[in-house]
Amino acid sequence: MDKSAKKKKFFQRKWSALEICVCLILTVYSLALIALFAWAIMTSFKTQSAYDRDKLFFNTPNAFTFDNYLNVFNGMSAQVPTLEGGMRPVYIEEMFLYSFLYAGGCAFCQTFFTATVAYCTARYKGTAASVIHSIVIITLILPVVGSLASTLQMAYELNLVNNMLGMYVLKVSFNNMYYLIFYALFASMSWEYAESAFIDGASHFTVYFKIMFPLAATLFGTVFLLFFISYWNDYQVPLMFLRNMPTLALGLYGFMLHDHSEFATPTAKIAAGVCVFIPVFAVFVAFRNKIMGNLTEGGIKG
Amino acid sequence: MASGKSMSKNKRSGQIFFWTMVILPLVQFCIFYVGVNFNSIILAFKSYENHTGVIVQDWVGFENFQTILHDWNTSLLLKTAVKNTFKYLAIDILIIMPATMLFAYYIYKNFALSNLFKVLIFAPSIICIMVLVIFFKGFMEDAVSQVIYKTTGTYIESMFLKRKYAFYPLTIFYIMFGFSGNILIYLNAISNISTSMLEAATIDGASEFKIFIQIVLPSIYKTCVSLLVISVSAIGSNQAYLHSFYGSSNAPEYARTLGYHLFDLVATSGVDGDNPTQYPIASAYGLVITFIVAPVTLTMRWLLNKYGPSED
Fold first, then answer.
1. I need a surface site. Which of A145, B16, B225, B301 has the fewest CB within 10 A?
2. How far is the C-alpha of A205 from the C-alpha of A128, rounded, in Å?
3. A30 to chain B: which residues are within 8 Å by CB?
4. Which residue of B lies nearest to A55 if distances are taken between CA atoms?
5. What burial class does residue B146 get, using C-beta atoms within 10 Å of its C-beta: 0-12 exposed, 13-18 middle, 19+ buried?
């Protein structure tokens, strides 16, 4: 169907009351969202004096500047202790590195162990597998509140605080909702490939890593991306567990609420927000079909 | 015989593979789920006191629980926090949940601009909450205030700190970014409904509203129950983004929720492990809330599943 026919069909079609109402609400919602982001991006390029004169629009000449981004790169910092007992600033470049290490490592550990445990329980039936499967179901259903103090205390006792490897250890977990998705996928996979491989002398490790795992690679990638984005954006866990290795999100939290230096102007804070938002948004735009498609079209099913 | 031997060898190597792969996550689970929750219970019966830099711990029996009871009877903070927590729960159940279901149905039916709406609704869930807070706070306090001033002559300064106004922008933010999280789950649940059933209803002349109420809702009922249970079970941890807006300890008392109060107790109590004085009371709060919330959510789940509509 060509464009004009589509357009004609669109306007000739009878719209239901529900469709009109929801469309109106969603249009208002979308416009509000777009206005918010457009305003933020515009403000991030505005001089502070122009912003003080008019906070809504760009209506003064010479209002455009990159200074806010320079302020972010030169001034957004967090103080961390050094081995010598002093303090040193951590700037945005180092925060980027910590964000990558934190988000990448934690996302990989959690996705890999969730997938692996799901594979084991789905394919190696027995009492142990049933117990592990029940553990996941129970921990997902049972709400446990207020264990943060205890987690922090234990992590401190085990020397996992302010330690990137410690963060990875904390994420070697499997009791999350993605376990069920991986479980459904592995349970529905044909076992014939594995049986052929066993006949050819392959070990269980080979079957998992070279046959079954690649078959689940798309879902693995999607879940990894979702975990990565969630850890990239997380500032509360680094605030409690990783203060000496501040991530970008934690740096942004400090810059917004606790930085009173000359760099931390309102426009620079918005520019800092744009700096954190752009990489994740770029990842989302690049992988949006993978992120949204895989979970809606297959992953959660079953 | 040889085949039997080979099968048992394969079974044994399967067992070795199984335990090699699950042992690490199982040990992690034992320490950081079982151990942590056991330690949390123990902490609730202890106290830590800071005597000029030296932390002294002691068993105090039910003293922490008595403190909570005392706080409940005397302090307005706790009652306000509970009231606000229930306000946000009501917003979750009465506004966010039904709206997300409707949005998901709209997108599923591929109505006008549905692909754009799908991306725009989902996008906030991938953006750092601090970014959203910085943008929203600046927009409301500066840009919207300017518009209000120009149109009404009233200047609202620091609206997030004014008792009269703070609830409104906080609620708008909570609703605006509350749809994102679950939209894909509803979309997936709706896409599992038989298309022939929906088509038959349309041919029979049923309106979209009727189809939504009489076919879609009963078909996604189990998903709704699960998400409702998650909302209720999160009442002890729902911070309603207050920590992102105000940081530790700075949220005005009239705006606080139970989740913020609990997190704040730990966040302000020496996160380097050198001053755990608030850990016991935080753990006691956690225990009390778990004892109330866990049976309520489990019973609610059971009742809703037993007496809810069937897909047939």
1. B16
2. 19
3. 116-117, 120
4. B143
5. middle
| Best of B45, B131, B182 to mutate (most A CBs within 10 Å, chain A) | B131
The pLDDT value given to residue A83: 83
DSSP per residue over B35-61, as a string? Answer: IHHHHHHHHTTEEEEEETTEEEEEE-T
Taking CA atoms, B161 is separated from A78, B144, B257, in Å, by: 26, 15, 16
Contact assignment for B233 to A143 by CB distance below 8 Å: yes
Summarised one tens digit per residue, pLDDT across range B166-215 is 999 999 999 999 988 788 889 888 988 888 999 999 899 899 899 999 99
DSSP B88-137: HHHHIIIIIHHHHHHHHHHHHTT-TTHHHHHHHHHGGGGS-HHHHHHHHH
> B216 or B309, which is more confident?
B216
Distance CA B305, CA B297 (A): 12
Rounded-to-integer distance, Cα B241 and Cα B256, Å: 10
What tokens were used for A74?
Answer: 């030169």
Spell out the domain ranges in chain A: 101-246+283-299
User: Is residue A147 scored above 80 in pLDDT?
Assistant: yes
CB atoms within 10 A of CB A202: 16
> How many other CB atoms sit within 10 Å of the CB of residue B275?
15
Residue with tokens 């049976």: B295
Question: What is the phi-psi region of residue A46: left when phi exceeds 0, alpha when psi lies from -120 to 50, beta otherwise?
Answer: beta
Nearest Cα of chain A lies from the Cα of B61 at a distance, in angstroms, of 18
pLDDT for B39 equals: 95
The number of C-alpha atoms within 13 Å of B299 and in the hemisphere containing its C-beta is 6
> Does domain A101-246+283-299 bear CATH number 3.30.70.80?
no
Compute the nearest-CA separation of B107 from chain A (Å).
Answer: 10
Query: Over pLDDT 70: what percentage of chain B?
Result: 95
Concatenated DSSP letters of B259-306? HHHHHHHHHTS-TTTT--TTHHHHHHHHHHHHHHHHHHHHHHHHHHHH
3-class SS shares of chain A: helix, strand, coil, % to 5? 70, 5, 25
Tokens of B18: 């199984």
Alpha carbon distance B11, B30 (integer Å) = 27
A75–chain B nearest CA distance, Å: 17
Per the prediction, chain A carries an average pLDDT of 88
Per the listing, tokens 């997902």 go with: A140
In this prediction, residue A49 carries a pLDDT of 87
Which residue in chain A has the smallest CA separation from B42?
A: A150
The residue of chain B with its CA nearest to that of A206 is B17
Q: Residue A4: its pLDDT value, please?
A: 72
Contact (CB<8Å) A152/B129:
no
- DSSP run (H or E) holding A78: strand A78-81
Given an 8 Å threshold on Cβ–Cβ distance, is A154 in contact with B39? yes
CB contact under 8 A, A204 and B142: no
CA distance B74 to chain A (A): 22
Nearest to A253 among B16, B37, B130 (CB): B130
In this prediction the ipTM stands at 0.87
Report the predicted TM-score, pTM, of the whole model to 2 decimal places.
Answer: 0.89
Cα separation, B73 vs A69, whole angstroms: 50
pLDDT of residue A11: 67
